[in-house]
Amino acid sequence: MPANLTPQYKEAEERFRQAATHAEKLEALHEMIALLPKHKGTEKMLAGLRQRLSKLEEEGERAARSGGHRADPGHVRREGAGQWVLVGPPNAGKSSLLKALTHAHPEIGAWPFTTRLPQPGMMPFEDVQVQLVDTPPLAVAPFDPVLINIARNADVLLLVLDTIDPQEFDHLALRLRFVDG
Fold first, then answer.
1. CB proximity list for 36: less than 8 A, separation 6 or greater
2. Which stretches of the chain are DSSP H helices?
3. How many domains does the chain have?
4. What confidence tens digit (pLDDT) does each residue in 39-84 have?
5. 70 assigned to some structural domain
6. 128-134 and 119-125 strand pairing
7. Are residues 26 and 106 both part of a single domain?
């Protein structure tokens, strides 16, 4: 049975998808529930929205009880259909790529090691949202444990190289060989 969703509901749903903070998500969900037409065709949708709202409220309570602090400053909470991580040497263009493909605003500089902590952003891919994560650069060993942890937990690793530097691939291969043993 069709749901006959209003344009206002669809706008609230889009705001929910684009929400970056917990409060924005809660506000958008409350608005979606208020705007959802109430009839037999939307009963399951309403139940799903209420379930999402309950889950978000529980997460908020847990974060409030724990003080909202994370032990790992480099941890990136997974969001979307998958987590794609950009890895590569300094000044390869990882942050520029993140900015071009998402609505994130990473610091971009002409000097190496501008990115010191992972920076996430949401990117549309086909009909789903995936999380794209900019990481600190691969540098001379030993590798940053934050970078290794994020790379291990990623669904996809995207290697970003500067094609202007012809020796960049050779340098990266030496670094990776050192890690591999």
1. 3, 5, 9, 42, 45, 46, 49
2. 7-18, 22-35, 43-65, 94-101, 145-153, 168-180
3. 2
4. 888 889 999 999 998 888 888 887 777 665 555 666 788 888 889 9
5. no
6. antiparallel
7. no
Distance from C-alpha of 28 to C-alpha of 11, rounded to nearest angstrom: 9
Quick: pLDDT tens for 100-144. Answer: 998 888 888 777 777 778 889 999 888 899 999 988 887 655 566
Q: Name the residue among 171, 101, 100 with its Cα closest to residue 137.
A: 171
To 10 degrees, what angle do helices 7-18 and 22-35 make?
160
145 CB neighbour count, 10 Å cutoff? 10
Q: Which residues are within 8 A (CB) of 30 and not within 5 positions of it... i.e. 6 or more apart? A: 53
Residue among 52, 50, 68 at smallest CA distance from 60: 68
- Identify the domain containing residue 165 by its residue range: 83-180
CB 118 within 8 A of CB 74: yes
Burial class of 157 by CB neighbour count within 10 A (0 to 12, 13 to 18, 19+) = middle
